[in-house]
Amino acid sequence: MWYLICFFISMVPIIELRGAIPVGIANNLNVFWLFPICIIGNMLPVPLIYFFARKVLIWGADKKFIGKFFTFCLKKGEKGGQKLQKNGGKGLFIALMLFVGIPLPGTGAWTGTLAASFLNMGFKKSVIAVICGVLIAGIIMGVGTYAVKMGMGGIFSLMANSK
Question: What are the pLDDT digits (tens) for 21-51?
């Protein structure tokens, strides 16, 4: 059940795999199953984002109820694309990979793919850069979560032993 929950958490924009990995580790899931499940969940929306998100956002930007949110997403994608273009230059692949790989809110596969579509990066090149970034983010989140979990376990055992 928790594997399925982590799979769906990985698909949610902004949270993505960066939120799913800690949830899985906190629930003592097997990392060798957790990582591939979260990576697949995080990557599943990428083709749809690349080919359709920009068109849908442009369409909805002037609509009454969704316009503000869609405009926010368009600006986020454009800003991400400009940042990648400025910092990446000829190394756009590496810049996109690192942009997605740094586990901060708003720098995941969704924003990275949207930015790549704004920059008209090729689909194959974009997907490979994004999946490499997702792998990096997964490793960082996994190691960080385990470090916190082990550190907290050590702190609690010290507190229990001092009584």
Answer: 999 999 999 999 999 999 999 999 999 999 9
Q: Which of 87, 90, 95 is nearest to 116 (CA)?
A: 95
Distances (CA, A) of 36 to 24, 134, 158: 12, 11, 35
What does the mean pLDDT of the chain come to?
88
Q: pLDDT for 49-71, tens place per residue?
A: 999 988 888 899 999 899 999 89
Is residue 1 domain-resident? no
Indicate the Cα dihedral angle 123, 132, 74, 88, nearest 10°: -90
The answer to the question of residue 102 being in a domain is: yes
Check if the beta carbon of residue 110 is closer than 8 Å to that of residue 45: yes
pTM for this entry: 0.82
Cα(38)–Cα(10) distance, rounded to whole angstroms?
5
Structural domains of the chain, count: 1
Q: Of the candidates 91, 61, 63, 97, which has an alpha carbon nearest to the alpha carbon of residue 78?
A: 61
